[in-house]
Amino acid sequence: MEEKVLALLRESGERPLSGEEIALRLAVSRAAVWKAIEALRAAGYEIEAATRRGYRLVSEGDILNEGILRAALKEEGIKLPLLFFRSVDSTNSEAKRLAAAGEKRDLLLAAAEQTAGRGRSGRSFLSPEGGLYMSFLLHPASPAEEAMRLTTAAAVAVSRAIDEISGKKTGIKWVNDIFLDGKKITGILVEASVSLENGGLEYAVVGIGVNVYEPRGGFDPSIRDVAGTIWGPGEKKDSARARLAAGIAKEYLAILRENDPEAVHRAYKERSLVLGKRVTVLRTGREEETALVLDLDEAERLVLQYDNGRIESLGTGEIRVKI
Ligand code: BTN
């Protein structure tokens, strides 16, 4: 239905088509036309509705669909099999379900919307249209301790790809949030299954959620102050989400192929937004403490100096920092 409405709008060009005319030509109700127009808008098409004149396709905007994404991946030479979803509960959950059902291939899963996106520490990750949601299902030969490297490599890859495609300068807030102009634009969630037999990784799922544009109606009030986007309102870029997905895949797979932890560490440090900063360390069951970030060690642990002079390396946890 949406495709048929779109075809009529394209054919009509500058001339607006009334809802009634579209309904008549497709032999459907006006309510069905309205629903299709809303779905097309949600998918990224800019459709103007002028009172009494009708609908006009203003621009195709940034459309994310399977065909466009496949073309972008091909352009970057990405051979990883793709599973694309218009909408899915969570690309990470889907990847884990596939792995549990015996999927042995490495895969890329991508979605234009998630209905139950998941974040770190059991939080949810709001995933409306306007973002890019993707997961890599990987079967690394590396031991379980290497899982942390998958995370830092992902942060470096995503930050690089966003900079390359947007021309902006992003940075990494420890551990793996990507920030632009003081706001979080990307979250990364790595989940791994460890073999009880040999302690190796059975599989790892590296999930990446990018706020590309603001969702319709803006961000939920609960995250409005902290969540940012790559592009502002009215700045729709042609197939940017597909190019971004392909760019992220290219960078990430290249880093994994090169298998040079020291290079990743250097790149991570260069992009770090917390080195040399005063941070507040938040740990469950403990009082908040402030500390200075002296360094990031080889395992990407924060080397902290607390106000009482104590020095400690922090491997996991949450910090608050003014960026
Ligand atoms: C965080 O910031 O807490 C991590 C957010 C990770 C979100 C991504 S979106 C794609 C993948 N699927 C999910 O359900 N989560 C990750």
Write a structural description.
By secondary structure, the chain is an alpha+beta fold. It folds into 3 domains: 2-59, Winged helix-like DNA-binding domain superfamily/Winged helix DNA-binding domain (Arc Repressor Mutant, subunit A, Orthogonal Bundle); 66-270, BirA Bifunctional Protein, domain 2, CATH 3.30.930; 278-320, Roll (SH3 type barrels), CATH 2.30.30. 32% of the residues lie in helices and 26% in strands. It is built from 8 helices and 14 strands. It has helices at 2-12, 19-26, 30-42, 66-75, 91-100, 147-166, 240-258, 261-271, and strands at residues 46-50, 54-59, 82-85, 107-111, 131-138, 171-173, 177-180, 183-194, 201-211, 278-282, 289-296, 302-306, 311-314, 318-321. A 7-stranded mixed beta sheet has the order 3-4-5-9-8-7-6, sandwiched between helices. The chain has a 5-stranded antiparallel beta sheet with strand order 13-12-11-10-14, with no helix packed on it. Strands 1-2 form a two-stranded antiparallel ribbon. Strand 7 and strand 8 (183-194) form a beta hairpin. Helix 4 (66-75) packs across helix 7 (240-258), helix 6 crosses helix 7 and helix 6 packs across helix 8 (261-271). The longest helix has 20 residues, at 147-166. The chain is globular. The chain starts with a helix and ends with a strand. It binds biotin.
